Amino acid sequence: MNKAQLITIVTLAILWTLGGIRLLWSGSFMLIAEAAEILGILVIISIIASLAIGFAKGKFVLQKTAQRSLDAAIKLENTIINCLLGWLKVLGVRGILVISLMIGLGIFLGGDFSPFNSFGRGLLRIAIGIALLIGSLRFWTELKEKIR
């Protein structure tokens, strides 16, 4: 594994992990704020459903996306540009547009004009956060295997 590949994979792993932690964290606080007003069993069922959906999306969708990013990162040549911007090359225009759309949708759904209440937004953030963390495991696993 060359330096550009290593830096790119580490950068992507950190971005996915931090994004997942941030969403999981903020979603948890939204749930805590609203959970007192909702019946206990409904809260538990909702959280379990959110975790299950997030796990499934991470396992069956985002790990495949992460693998495609890994495959592209492994093809990078060891140049200064690839060391600095390899992760942008790996994401590509389509990936950057999708991420921008997801961030914009998150801002819309997280705002006061959202059709969801805080509890629903919290569940959504937890599901997406878990999915990102599950997907990020693909990057960390690859690093562990390649560094040995």
Give an overview of the whole structure.
The chain has 4 helices and no strands. The chain has 148 residues and is an all-alpha fold. The protein has one domain (3-143). It is elongated, with a radius of gyration of 17 Å. 30% of the residues are buried. The model has no long low-confidence stretch (mean pLDDT 89).
List keywords for this structure.
148 residues, mainly alpha, 4 helices, elongated
Residue-averaged pLDDT, rounded? 89
Largest sheet properties: none
Strand content: under 5%
Classify the secondary structure makeup into a structural class.
mainly alpha
Spans of at least 5 consecutive residues whose pLDDT stays below 50 are none
Tell me, briefly, the overall form: elongated
How many domain regions? 1
In sequence order, what are the helices and strands, one letter per element?
Answer: HHHH
What's the oligomerization state? single chain
Helix content: over 70%
Query: What is the count of β-strands?
Result: 0
Computed Rg: 17 Å
How far apart are the termini?
11 Å
| Count of DSSP-assigned helices | 4
